[in-house]
Structure formats: C-alpha cells, structure tokens
Amino acid sequence: xxxxxxxxxxxxxxxxxxxxxxxxxxxxxxxxxxxxxxxxxxxxxxxxxxxxxxxxxxxxxxxxxxxxxxxxxxxxxxxxxxxxxxxxxxxxxxxxxxxxxxxxxxxxxxxxxxxxxxxxxxxxxxxxxxxxxxxxxxxxxxxxxxxxxxxxxxxxxxxxxxxxxxxxxxxxxxxxxxxxxxxxxxxxxxxxxxxxxxxxxxxxxxxxxxxxxxxxxxxxxxxxxxxxxxxxxxxxxxxxxxxx
Length: 244
Hints:
The protein is an alpha+beta fold and 244 residues long. Among the domains are: 35 residues, no CATH class; 126 residues, no CATH class. Helix content is 20%, strand content 26%. It has three helices and 13 strands, in the order ββββββββααβββββα. The strands form four sheets. It has a five-stranded antiparallel β-sheet. A three-stranded antiparallel β-sheet has the order 1-2-3, with no helix packed on it. Helix 1 runs antiparallel to helix 2.
C-alpha cells in the first residue's frame, strides 16, 4: 500500500487506500500544518430581535400613586396603619411604610355577671318541674298502650295526649299534669282537684270525650262533650281557671 500527499489550495490532504482524512496534514516539506477554520463575515453585527411581550401585561401604575388602607381592614396590625403603594400591575403591591395610629383602640367594656331574682328562679324551677311531669305522663301513656294485653289502644293513647296538649295550651301552660288512670273498657280518665273544684275528662274509644265539673261547696255541676282535635269551647276554658 502506498501513501501519497497532494498539495491543494487549502493545504495538502493525505489519502490512504481510497479513504481521505480532512484537517491537518503534511505540507510539501513534510511538516505538519494546523487546520484552517471559516472566519465570521465582515460588516455590522445584526440587532437582536426583542422578545414578544406577555399578552396579560398591563401598563404600570403612575409613579407616586399611594393607597392608604383603612385601619379596620388591618386588624392583625392592631395599633398600626399600613400604607401600601402600587408599583406594577394592578394586583401587585409593596409595603413602604408602617406608622403608629393616632386613633386610640377602644377596649370592650367588661360584661356584668347576670344575676337572677328569686322570683325568676322560682318560675324556672316550676317550668322545669312541669316539663318533667309532662315527660313522665308521656311515658305512662306509652307504657299502658304497649305489651301483649295493653290497658288502652295506641289510638286512645294518642287521643289522650292530644287532648292534654290542647288543655295545656288553652290554660297558657299553667294547667298541672292530670291524675290519670285507665278504665275496664279501654277508657282513659283525667282528673284535676284544687280545693272545692273538681274537673274530669273521660276519653272513650269510638265516642266523643266528656268534660265534667263539680263545685263541692255550691254543688254546681257542668258537663260537655269534646271532639278531640278541635279547640276547647269558651266555657271549657273558663272551667280551667281554678286549676291554673
């Protein structure tokens, strides 16, 4: 195999077995020569192309625009006023100054402890006692209308509770819980006694209920039918007065 050196315009190149190697090579005198590279073109350098602006860019706020925040809007700062200035777009702010407030902060007045009068305490205790008895009467109706052989039916128990609610509302919430008992034929009897006054309400399955009143001193008697679910008559409400 024979290697030859050929001189060209850019410098000699060495060829071996049909393969050429570009770059440095031997010159005519047999010494190595460094490779040449392309030089940059002569002339003025082109100006850089500016980057496109963001579509959401907004014009900057005018210089010297100062916004004073209200003190009530800056509760965490307590006795300070925060002054802020718009420095760029509408949503960007910078803290530039914090000054003491000239308005003194008002401290809330201490609350006075509530004290109840003896009369109010007595009324509350009476209301609590009446509510307790009301719940006990409700449990009694549930008990006598449950089981394998109940004393009254569920329908009679529901009517009795509805009649008692109507009496309690008509008396302004002052009527005491009645003494209650069941009859041999599934009836429910309510009764109230105070001094010479006696009042009864008999709830009979399949019939209208019956009011009965007696004055033990004058032997005055009064009776009236009552359809449970309807308002009490004026005379029936009057008979409730001695028991309030």
